[in-house]
């Protein structure tokens, strides 16, 4: 009878104070969710000892450095737990949303971030995958190979990399990253033998934004781990303390070394000169690492930056040099100019009796604005020849631009005619390169003029890249000018004589081109390569860079 009265009282109270009871139930719901997140790792850790205790023993990560037999072992390591310094997955999914999707998709992901943090890691991962991948065409998805490797490499811990490098066969596993996000980075840049990430569901060639269920059984262990390792059980696992070890490969590990948070805090970032393979090409618009705070700054800046870019472009197109240069400097555009030891005027006067041609400025290629900045530096107009240029950029350019045809004889006649009309600028690399490397210089320019002036150019941005291989090239100048403080460095180098004045019969046009490339490389501290425009577009866009750039 007493219980019946209590139940009646409770029902009456709920009717009188429905909002209070709703808030109370909501509070207890979130309390259970949060407490489950904090209590689960300990439970998981206890279950590891029970489930895997018969297969291996756990060691401190620091003791791994004392082993001298790793070269004969197969290393199975968790990507996000042991290789990367950062624990957050958000920046990498934001890159997918922005680069493979759109600004709107990236905004949706950013607005979902508080809810992602609240619901826990597994549900948060599913939300990020849905927002980032839903409706993306699988065949055209190249963010994993063209964009993400740069940001992954910048997040690799030096100490973890050194330990993995000492191993024999290396197998990477991930409980969170989809396979398409990490495979290219690990295989192409870190020489990992096998990568096992999460698989994404697809339909009719499009991602559905859903993860496949984790595989409970592993087939072909000999293929994944190596036949010798499976027979001799020479398999060592590396994972993070208090993280899930339910991947089937860890059950075959003889020993498992666990990385603590304090270990990661002491790690250094992997220096660029220690990369197993140099990062020469990468694509994408974002130059910053899109952490939640950086992403917030990005979205706050975009409306203002867009207007500022239009103002900067209008100034450059309409105002004379004497007014536009100081005005652009006031808006944050920085230009540093280094004058040559031998001025072009002196070089020209010494050969005035031999040629009435204009000067030929040969520069490396950083952005589509290279000729325009060179024009600002010299405070005069000239003609620029390019291998590819969007129609919109060609129309809006304040200086004359002429498109090359890639036919050597036809391009030579065109450049000869243009030099007879005045000064000419050419970028013999044929395409832009963001990193401190120079691509192979096409030797055509060496035969065109006696008066060659090498120009070393470098551009710096903090938020957006002003170049693209797979996007719309007509937006390149806009993205460059949207940076808060874009800057250019221009160095005029000593003049070089063309082949018509060269008395050495052994000297070829290739020798002249290589010499100019090396001089520009020395001035910028860039490394010279033999890579070409074709190599770049095959890596980043999957084509030869002919049809994709005419937009």
TrEMBL record:
Q: How does it sit in the membrane?
A: Multi-pass membrane protein
Q: Which residues form a coiled coil?
A: none
Keywords annotated in UniProt: Acyltransferase, Membrane, Transferase, Transmembrane, Transmembrane helix
Its annotated compartments are:
Membrane
In the UniProt record, does the keyword Transferase occur?
yes
Query: Known InterPro entries for this protein?
Result: HAD_RAM2/GPAT1-8, Plipid/glycerol_acylTrfase
Q: Which GO terms describe its biological process?
A: cutin biosynthetic process
Key word Transmembrane present: yes
* Domain Phospholipid/glycerol acyltransferase residues, every copy: 359-460
Q: Where are the transmembrane segments?
A: 16-34, 293-313
Its family remark reads: Belongs to the GPAT/DAPAT family.
What is the name listed in the Swiss-Prot or TrEMBL entry for this protein? Phospholipid/glycerol acyltransferase domain-containing protein
Q: Which organism is it from?
A: Populus tomentosa (Chinese white poplar)
């Amino acid at each position: 009878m007493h219980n019946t009265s209590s139940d009646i009282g409770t029902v009456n109270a709920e009717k009188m104070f429905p909002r209070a009871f709703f808030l109370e139930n909501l509070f207890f719901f979130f309390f259970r969710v949060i407490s489950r997140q904090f209590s689960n790792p300990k439970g998981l850790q206890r279950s590891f000892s029970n489930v895997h205790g018969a297969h291996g023993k756990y060691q401190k990560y620091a003791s791994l450095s004392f082993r001298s037999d790793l070269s004969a072992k197969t290393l199975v390591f968790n990507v996000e737990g042991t290789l990367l310094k950062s624990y957050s997955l958000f920046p990498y999914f934001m890159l997918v949303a922005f680069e493979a999707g759109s600004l709107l998709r990236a905004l949706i992901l950013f607005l979902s971030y508080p809810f992602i943090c609240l619901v826990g890691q597994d549900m948060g991962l599913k939300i990020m995958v849905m927002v980032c991948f839903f409706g993306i065409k699988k065949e055209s998805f190249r963010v994993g190979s063209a964009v993400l490797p740069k940001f992954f490499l910048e997040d690799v811990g030096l100490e973890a990399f050194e330990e993995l490098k000492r191993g024999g066969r290396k197998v990477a596993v991930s409980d969170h990253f989809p396979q398409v996000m990490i495979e290219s980075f690990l295989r192409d840049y870190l020489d990992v033998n096998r990568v096992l990430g999460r698989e994404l569901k697809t339909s009719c060639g499009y991602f559905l934004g859903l993860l496949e269920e984790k595989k409970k059984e592993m087939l072909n262990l000999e293929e994944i781990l190596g036949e010798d390792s499976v027979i001799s059980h020479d398999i060592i696992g590396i994972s993070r303390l208090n993280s899930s070890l339910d991947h089937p490969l860890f059950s075959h590990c003889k020993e498992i070394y666990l990385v603590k948070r304090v270990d990661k805090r002491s790690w250094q970032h992997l220096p660029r000169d220690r990369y197993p393979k140099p990062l020469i090409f990468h694509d994408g618009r974002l130059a910053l690492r899109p952490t939640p705070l950086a992403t917030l700054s990005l979205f706050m800046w975009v409306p203002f930056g867009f207007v500022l870019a239009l103002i900067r472009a209008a100034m450059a197109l309409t105002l004379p040099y004497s007014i536009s240069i100081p005005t652009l400097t006031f808006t944050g555009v920085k230009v540093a100019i280094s004058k040559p030891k031998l001025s072009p005027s002196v070089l020209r006067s010494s050969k005035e009796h031999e040629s009435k041609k204009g000067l030929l400025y040969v520069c490396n290629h950083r952005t589509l604005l290279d000729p325009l900045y060179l024009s600002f530096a010299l405070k005069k107009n000239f003609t620029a020849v390019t291998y590819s240029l969007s129609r919109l950029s060609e129309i809006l350019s304040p200086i004359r631009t002429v498109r090359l045809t890639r036919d050597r004889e036809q391009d030579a006649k065109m450049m000869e005619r243009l030099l007879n009309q005045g000064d000419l600028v050419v970028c013999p690399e044929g395409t832009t390169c963001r990193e401190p490397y120079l691509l192979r210089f096409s030797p055509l320019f060496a035969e065109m003029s006696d008066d060659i002036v090498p120009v070393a150019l470098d551009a710096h941005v903090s938020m957006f890249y002003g170049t693209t291989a797979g996007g719309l090239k007509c937006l390149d100048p806009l993205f460059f000018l949207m940076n808060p403080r874009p800057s250019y460095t221009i160095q005029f180098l000593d003049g070089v004589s063309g082949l018509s004045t060269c008395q050495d019969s052994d000297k070829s046009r290739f020798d002249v081109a290589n010499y100019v490339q090396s001089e520009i490389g020395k001035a910028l501290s860039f490394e010279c390569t033999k890579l070409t425009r074709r190599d770049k577009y095959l890596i980043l866009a999957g084509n030869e860079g002919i049809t994709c750039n005419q937009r």
